[in-house]
Amino acid sequence: MTSLALFSLLYFAVSVLTLTDSSLSSITTAASPAASKCTLLNRFQPDFVVQGNYVIGGIFPIHFSLKLRDLNGTYRPPPINCNAHKFNPRVFRWAQTMRLAVEEINQNPVLLPNHTLGYRIFDSCAHPLTGQRAVLSMLNGVSEGNSSMCTNASSILAVIGASGSAESIVVSRILQTFRIPMISYASSCACLSDRQKYPTFFRVIPSDDYQVKAIAQLLVHLNWTWVGLLRGDHDYGRFAAKGLLRELQDTKVCVAYQEIIPLLYTRQMGLRIMKVMRSSTAKVVVVFLGDLLMTPFMRDYMTQNITGIQWVASEALVMSSVLSGKEYYPYMGGTIGFGIRKGHIPTLGDFLQTVNPKRYPDNVLVHELWESLYGCSPLPSSVTQMPPCSGQESLLEQHSAYMNTSSPSITYNVYKAVYAIAHSLHKLLLCQPGRGPFQNNSCAQSNNIHPWQLQHYLQEVNFQIGDEEVDFDAKGDSVPYYDIINWQRGKEGNIEFVNVGLFNGTKAVGEELLIQEDRIMWAGHQSEVPVSVCSASCLPGSRKAVRRGEPICCFDCVPCDSGKISNQTNSVDCATCPEDFWSNKDRTACISKKVEYLTFDSLGIALTVMSVVGACFTLAVCGVFFCYRHTAIVRVNNSELSFFILFALTLCFLCCLLFIGKPTYWSCMLRHTAFSITFSLCISCILGKTLVVLAAFTATRPGHNIMKWLGPKQQRTIISSCTLVQVVICAAWLIDSPPFPSRNTQYEHSKIILECSVGSSLAFWCVLGYIGLQACLCFVLAFLARKLPGNFNEAKFITFSMLIFCAVWLAFIPAYISSPGNYTDAVESFAILTSSFGLLFCLFAPKSYIILLKPEKNTKQHLMGKEKK
């Protein structure tokens, strides 16, 4: 049970002596044997009464107060005087619509023939406690004489009302005790769909479950992701806010704040709420309250000069005539919301014209209507301070609060509710004995119909009124239809309610909302949809990063990482590009990765030139040696080995060309094996020459005849054997795991580096290790022979050449490992060229210098150091 309903029932129990109760009447009867009938201790007269065969009740908030009493339960509450409150012509029109519907039904020869409907219409003063008093008075009857509560079934078969959900909760709990059905025309709280708590409740207005779904779809449709929420402190506001938050859970819409306007409104409380609204970045505010609470809040709101707020109003506020004055437009103009679907009642305008003080001279409400519309009173001046009038003035279109029949949404609901009761009663009276729905297939007795019997037919009623089908589901709810209403400036500066769309709850999910944005005038008299976001949208190329501790609508925009893209606005994550693609500069599209390898560009051309120049130099030296092959310096240095070395160096220079260009299967196998074998051949020749030099000078010592073991044949054997070892290693490498072309995407993710994978790292380092072993052995032997006698000791040049060779290749290892991409091949090529140039110049530059520039030193005596002084 809600707190408001509980408090109302407690109040009813406490004030039972003031109001009246059938049980009290029974107690009075039992205590006084002489009493023969129920006695009413107090009276609450209806505002309109018509007798009939079957009587229905009506409860309307014809009066309303802007200030509610503080009922804290510490004192006996005083009676509420409705006439002291403000008169609402719009609601008075609702009551007249009920009277019109009853008259039409009584004059209809087809619907309820030979039977008439009566009614009792009460004013609830827009207060649950007064609504409670009205329904109890309705049940008791007008006087003791016509009250059947003590002995027979209720004289009221059904009740039309109430308006607010809080009132309907109180009224329904009282009526369900007597199993009397009620049909509400304006109570939309989702809580009233609970058949366990409200078994006799029906309504012709859609449940707020549908309204919050419609509002959620509107917010999503207009991209309003950051909104405020303002609700009343009652069941309608609580359940509507709870339902909206539930609907928004799976969307991108967040609620920036939720503020509550209390029933006991104070200016201080209102200013606090306005401070929150002013400080928030949310420019859209959803409102779940009626004009009763909104009016005092808006009066304070206008004094604060707050503008730029786009209001989204629920059905309780969106058709409010109280806030339609031109003074409200600068602050509430552009409001959009969902109103009850409009309907047309052809005879309503003429019927309203017949209601005047002349025809109803004793009806206080009609007098108040005239006072509200004309500012005059048909009563004598001694009774009222207003100017007098005849009471026969013509009702004009300018009296829209009462005479607006073009879009009577709630009015149409009242009309449908009365006809729903009439059709249900008609079907009940058509029941044939033996085929009825009640026990033993019985029917209801036409002269003693119980309300619960009518409810059975009300649950199954289905009829057509205009172009609309009226029926109720198992929860007592009707088909959900809403008009989308926009508050626009009228011709006289006042607010007009313009229909700009429709929400049809019978459509498929996602198709319910139909809105005409080009017809909407937004807040601030703007034609463009206002923006209400916590964070600006993240452009393509970035993603959303939710801020810690804040709603998901508040986020930062983070650029996508390299290799990832987002091509949509507000992407939650960046998509990774396929393996052969990479993100562009803006991170909005994947483009093909750039393919890199050592090409004949600037670096490739430089290496090619160095390689060709080195080979040409080598061939030139070879030509010089060939031309001067009979001279002493060529013959002394073993011309055969010299030509082998020059041949090997030429191959070393040329094998660099294999490292330039797009790697292929054959080029990958050749580049490493050719380089290793040619270098091994070169170092083997140098090793042989070193041994010969060392042996030649050692042979000059007595007792040493080592030269016989290092003749030409043995030298070839040494060279062949040393080179053959490298050939065997390369062959094993090619057979087991040969080098192959590969696509390296790991070193630099934005590029595809075409390179030659060595296949077997062990084989690769064995090849280099073997060359290094040969070079170290040459270095050691040459170092031992560096101080041997002679003007031209070739061991010194071999030592220096091996020193350069080893230095180059020792530096090559870390450079090779750390070089990125195609620079790996460039480093290896540069190492080959550098070491080749080192060997060429260290071994052959001094000899070429003597041959070409110092021919006088090209003698055996000079070379042996035996030149005559």
From TrEMBL:
Residues 603-867 form the G-protein coupled receptors family 3 profile domain. GO terms for cellular component: plasma membrane. It is found in: Cell membrane. The keyword Iron-sulfur does not apply. The keyword Cell membrane applies. It is a multi-pass membrane protein. Residues 1-18 form the signal peptide. The chain crosses the membrane at residues 603-628, 640-661, 673-697, 718-735, 762-785, 797-817, 829-852. Keywords: Cell membrane, G-protein coupled receptor, Glycoprotein, Membrane, Receptor, Signal, Transducer, Transmembrane, Transmembrane helix. InterPro entries: ANF_lig-bd_rcpt (IPR001828), GPCR_3_9-Cys_dom (IPR011500), GPCR_3_C (IPR017978), GPCR_3_Ca_sens_rcpt-rel (IPR000068), GPCR_3_CS (IPR017979). GO terms for molecular function: G protein-coupled receptor activity. It comes from the Eukaryota. Belongs to the G-protein coupled receptor 3 family. This is Extracellular calcium-sensing receptor-like. It comes from Solea senegalensis (Senegalese sole). The lineage of its organism: Eukaryota, Metazoa, Chordata, Craniata, Vertebrata.
